[in-house]
Write a structure and sequence with these properties.
The chain is an alpha/beta fold. The chain has two domains: about 5-245 and about 380-430, Alkaline Phosphatase, subunit A (3-Layer(aba) Sandwich), CATH 3.40.720; about 250-375, Gyrase A, domain 2. It has 15 helices and 18 strands. The protein has helices spanning about 20-25, 30-35, 50-60, 65, 95-100, 135-145, 145-155, 165-185, 195-200, 205-230, 255-260, 295-310, 325-330, 360-365, 410-415; strands at about 5-15, 35-45, 105-110, 120-125, 185-190, 235-240, 245-255, 265, 275, 280, 285-290, 320-325, 340, 345-350, 355-360, 375, 385-390, 405. It has an eight-stranded mixed beta sheet, with helices on both faces. Strands 7, 14, 15 and 16 form a four-stranded mixed beta sheet that branches. The radius of gyration is 21 Å and the shape is globular.
Length: about 425
């Protein structure tokens, strides 16, 4: 298959919404991208619409239950900080960067989710030191490109303040610019989380979120300038995209509190889960309900009746209840007994104590107990689309794609690079491509 571009730069602005498009088209660097490129402001995300499944979908063209990354974090009942799907081995089948590597292309990824231990030439994976005895730099080095990460940390590490934003994205930006100018990768995946952070802790339309979008415009401009400096701008394609949108919420629903009251999970005096028959695993705007024993029909019946009765009263925050089989048809984890969707203004939390529903206060958010906005909701929610802008080599100019799906992005990017992702759930958006 013929390549349409020599260099593909995919920039994920986490939590970029279709609702942001009117603001983006008035910002100088997004304007530059739009002037020469094409876009879709009606991109449907996946279910559950959380970051790690979304980014695995972008590079595979598959739904979560086919690529295997069905949530951000693992089912670890009662853990205050569950482990994440950090590692490449959690993804079933091939990825865009695997196929690029097979074709002897130079690859780079900066804080792209689910890339720890991936076969990427210049890899700075998104992975946290999730144990008190672990050091963040050591964990990152052990799971990515050692000498590359040491170099980036030596050059730009002073910009970071742990995981806080916007400093983390500033570090990622400088690393991306340096990598473009010195390595000239054929495929680069960059993940910025500034906007997502601001929306979580200040609200969807907050001043802080608007400021993050303006910073993202600056970051985009720096990347475009780096491509020009490197002498590869004319041979490059640049894609700016979002993975999901977000919705404001003011109440946290704690289903595990009810399951505990029903004797379906037990907690000791230290607050640790000692045993459980059913557990609510949050995806923020949605949640899986798992059974310890999938063959426990008695518990399944009890839990199903409990959830359906709760959903009859809109004050309980549950919009609807899906069976695991129904969730599977939407691309989510069919191994769950149930999947529940939150009503607008609500989201799910795994906390085990207190009231069934908590009203969220500013103090809660400041202390990071809860958030003011979240995602994970069904793609069918109103005003919940994300977007994509593509420009450069191999991209047609001034084409407006009426609608597309997140699963279409991987196959389309693969065709740009002359690659094939095989049996995907999505299709190549040929209207975008200058074939």
């Amino acid at each position: 298959m013929a390549r349409l571009t020599d260099h593909l730069i995919v920039i994920s602005f986490d939590c970029l919404s279709a609702l942001d498009f009117p603001m983006l088209k008035d910002l100088p660097n997004f304007q530059e991208l739009l002037k020469q490129g094409s876009y879709c402001k009606n991109v449907e995300t996946i279910y559950p619409s959380v970051t790690y499944p979304c980014h695995a979908t972008i590079v595979t063209g598959k739904y979560p239950n086919r690529h295997g990354v069905i949530n951000n974090t693992f089912l670890q009942p009662g853990s205050p900080s569950p482990d994440w799907y950090w590692h490449r081995f959690h993804i079933k089948g091939t990825t865009l960067y695997d196929e690029a590597k097979k074709a002897s292309m130079k690859t780079a990824a900066l804080l792209w989710p689910v890339t720890a231990k991936a076969n990427i030439d210049y890899n700075m994976p998104e992975i946290f030191s999730n144990r008190p005895w672990l050091n963040q730099i050591a964990v990152s080095l052990a799971n990515g490109s050692v000498f590359y990460q040491i170099d980036m940390n030596n050059r730009f590490g002073h910009l970071r303040k742990g995981l806080s934003q916007p400093e983390l994205d500033d570090f990622v930006l400088e690393s991306a610019v340096h990598t473009i100018e010195t390595k000239k990768p054929n495929l680069m995946l960059v993940h910025f989380t500034d906007l997502d952070t601001q929306r979580h802790y200040h609200g969807f339309s907050s001043d802080e979120a608007q400021a993050a979008i303006k910073r993202h415009d600056m970051r985009l401009g720096r990347i475009l300038h780096a491509l020009k400096n490197a002498g590869i701008y004319e041979k490059s394609s640049v894609v700016a995209l979002g993975d999901h949108s977000a919705l404001d919420e003011s109440k946290a629903v704690k289903v595990n509190v009810l399951l505990r009251e029903q004797g379906l999970l037990n907690v000791n005096e230290k607050g640790k889960v000692t045993d459980w028959k059913a557990y609510c695993k949050s995806c923020d705007g949605s949640a899986y309900i798992y059974l310890h024993d999938q063959n426990d029909t008695e518990t399944k019946t009890r839990v199903g009746e409990l959830l359906r009765n709760l959903s009859k009263d809109e004050n309980n925050g549950i919009e609807y209840v899906l069976t695991g089989e129904e969730a599977g048809t939407k691309g989510a984890d069919e191994k769950a007994a149930f999947m529940i969707e939150a009503r607008k203004g609500f989201y799910f939390h795994e906390r085990l104590e207190g009231a069934f529903i908590d009203s969220i206060t500013k103090e809660d958010v400041t202390n990071k107990r809860y958030t003011f906005a979240s995602h994970g909701y069904s793609p069918a929610k109103e005003h919940y689309k994300t977007m994509l802008i593509a420009s450069g080599c191999g991209i047609r100019e001034n084409i407006v794609i009426p609608s597309m799906h997140l699963v279409d992005e991987g196959p389309t990017f693969a065709k740009l690079l002359g690659l094939d992702l095989g049996n995907t759930d999505g299709n190549v958006v040929n209207e975008l491509l200058d074939v």
